[in-house]
Design brief:
Elements (H helix, E strand, L loop, with lengths): L1 H6 L4 H18 L1 H9 L1 E4 L5 E4 L6 E3 L2 H9 L6 E4 L23 H6 L4 E4 L6 H6 L4 E3 L5 H15 L5 H16 L9 E7 L3 E2 L5 H9 L2 E2 L13 H7 L3 E5 H4 L12 H4 L3 E4 L1 H8 L5 H24 L1
Parallel strand pairs: 3-4, 3-5, 5-6, 7-9, 7-10, 10-11
Antiparallel strand pairs: 1-2, 7-8
């Protein structure tokens, strides 16, 4: 397959010469050698690196929770032999060996598990060290809806799972359904979604921001600021959001931040505080994005209903 892709840009005569040479090699080397070549599996990761496998890897080590969840959603959880310390879904992965953080894993622990492939993020500092030790690495970095769809396709190709895009179709349909479930009154609500108390916010260009857009609300963090930018706290005060979405871990002391007591959402107590389990769903760009959209829609609907009740009183 790879040979034919390269031949597309060559003159016809040159193509025929190369095809005859390939056939001669096959005849000389034996059918079994050619069959192995035909079965070789190649995937290109988000670094632009093409990784070749003799067959679909059976021993997979995942160092990113969203990739762990993707492998399992594609029905291949049994291939996982280890995960990072943050991978906690589905429940079956809790029993797997933990190999440290995704950005700085325990290299010795990873090597000791003898994985056929290590799945990790592009931002991980471990890629070059693992490759130098002879391990195959596939680096993937889902940050947007398009990224999630592409990563599903890449992991599906790696695992030789047919129609991996079925998972994306479910996600896409679920986000649409969540948007359609919302009352008209929530449209254009100005929302701040905090991903960490630094504070880092979810920008319009992130997968969270794209979900917010599809739900019809206005994100106060513009795409020009980045995917998950670190914000000056005064920026949030000036933006004065109508509603804040935040994880339980980050919510403590939010109202006591300088000037934040004057924010409209805090004054009106329009703050959705998500449990740690819900926060994991919301901040992971993977198969559970459909549930994340429903959680955000429930938050919006709840505060719309609360405002309507106050208006009646």
């Amino acid at each position: 397959m790879i040979v034919f892709e390269k031949l597309k840009t060559r003159p016809v005569l040159r193509q025929w010469t190369l095809l005859r040479s390939w056939a001669a090699i096959c005849i000389g080397a034996g059918v079994s050698t050619c069959a192995l070549q035909a079965q070789a599996l190649q995937v290109t990761d988000d670094r632009g690196v093409t990784v070749t496998f003799a067959q679909s890897p059976q021993r997979i080590l995942s160092l990113l929770p969203s990739l762990t969840e993707t492998v399992c959603e594609l029905g291949q959880c049994q291939r996982l032999i280890g995960v990072d310390r943050y991978s906690n879904y589905p429940a079956s992965v809790l029993a797997l060996p933990k190999t440290g953080g995704g950005l700085d894993p325990n290299i010795e622990a990873v090597v000791a598990l003898r994985p056929d492939v290590v799945l990790l993020s592009v931002s991980s500092r471990a890629s070059e060290r693992l490759e130098a030790l002879g391990l195959k690495v596939v680096a993937l970095e889902p940050k947007t809806h398009a990224d999630v769809r592409r990563v599903l396709e890449t992991v599906g190709q790696l695992l030789e799972v047919p129609d991996a895009q079925r998972v994306w179709r479910v996600i896409d349909a679920s986000v649409l359904a969540a948007a359609q479930s919302l009352p008209a009154g929530v449209k254009h609500t100005r929302v701040y979604f905090e991903v960490s108390p630094s504070p880092h916010g979810a920008g319009e260009a992130s997968f969270i921001g794209e979900t917010m857009l599809r739900l019809g609300v206005k994100n106060i963090v513009p795409a020009s600021m980045g995917v998950f930018p670190k914000l000056n706290p005064e920026f949030v005060v000036r933006a004065n959001p109508d509603l804040i979405m935040v994880g339980e871990r980050n919510a403590l002391g939010m109202a006591q931040r300088p000037g934040w007591g004057n924010i409209r959402a805090i004054r009106a107590q329009r703050i959705c505080v998500f449990s740690p389990e819900q926060s994991d769903v919301l901040v992971r760009p993977g198969p559970r994005m459909a549930l994340g959209a429903r959680l955000m829609a429930q938050c919006l609907a709840r505060y719309q209903a609360s405002d309507a009740a106050k208006a009646v009183r």
